[in-house]
Amino acid sequence: MNKPLSTLFALAVAFATAAVHAQEIKGDAKAGERKNAACIGCHGIAGYQASFPEIYKVPKISGQNAKYISNALAAYKKGERKHPTMRGNADSLSDKDMADLAAYYSTHGAKDGDKLPETPAVQPSTQVAELLKKGACVSCHGANFSKPIDPSYPKLSGQHADSLYVALKSYKTEGNATWGRSNGVMGGIAKQFSNNELKELAKYMASLPGDLKTIPESKFR
Predict the structure, then answer these.
(1) Rounded distance, CA 158 to CA 94, Å?
(2) Res 10: pLDDT
(3) Residues pairing with 12 in the sheet
(4) Cβ atoms 201, 194 nearer than 8 A
């Protein structure tokens, strides 16, 4: 590509990126708190387990990145993530609803002064270290797996191991009408590993301190 065309391409990308950011809807945490009735029945009960496609604890979402939450909800609504319950819940949400819920859960339970170590508090075994290197996990999710390079990526530290494992397997699933996640990057990464290897990765990330929490609503305490 010659220099003038290269410059025009770069400007086009910059303007497109700026336009996307300009169109992003700002979430209102207070509004999100009023809209979370469908969320608390699963994500507001400590240790609550889902039974599809297998039994596993529903993910902790309090303290998760807002952009990741809103993107995940949008993916369920579009069918890029397949899960009957989550698809049904997301179908009823507007973009503003998603942004509000994301804003609420991203700050839910956060405390001033909370600070995680910059590097993992628990060092991986030799086997897990090789798996992390193979998947280049640190390059997106951060050295402590709780500070991703972009807020559209999830925090992983301290998430339930079985929840992480099921999520990772879902990226390998193809051709299933009710289960699986469509993501070119994560699909390519997850397919490099056996299910046993994914389980080891999930167990390690779950063992690390993180921001993620399940905070029961008062009616469930």
Answers:
(1) 30
(2) 44
(3) none
(4) no
Asked if residue 46 lies in contact with residue 216, where contact means CB atoms within 8 angstroms, the answer is yes
User: Residue 111: which pLDDT band, with cuts at 50, 70 and 90?
Assistant: confident
Lookup: tokens for 111: 């405390």
Reported as a single tens digit per residue, the pLDDT across 84-95 is 999 999 999 999
Looking at the whole model, is its pTM more than 0.85?
yes
CB 137, CB 199: distance < 8 Å: no
Residue labelled with tokens 């297998």: 54
Contacts by 139-145 with C-beta closer than 8 Å and gap 24+? 143/118, 143/119, 144/116, 144/117, 144/118, 144/119, 144/120, 144/208, 145/120, 145/205, 145/208, 145/210
The domains of the chain are located at 26-109+119-220
Q: Does domain 26-109+119-220 have CATH number 1.10.10.60?
A: no
The residue type of 94 is S
